[in-house]
Amino acid sequence: MRNWRRILTPYLFISPFFLGYAIFFLYPMLSALYLSFFKQVGIGTAPRFVGIDNYANMLSDQLFQRSLVNTTYYAAGSIFIIVPAALILALVLTRRNLFFREGFRVLYFSPNITAGIVVAIIFGLVFDEKYGLLNNYILAPLNIPPIRWLNEPNWIMPAIIILGLWRYVGINALYFMTGLQNIPDEIKEAARIDGANSWQLFRFVLVPLLRPILIFVLTFAIIGSYNLFTEPTILVGVDGGVRNAGLFMTMYLYLTGFRFLDFGYAAAIGWAMAIIILALTTLQLLAMRVFQED
Question: How far is CA 62 from its chain centroid?
Answer without folding.
Answer: 23
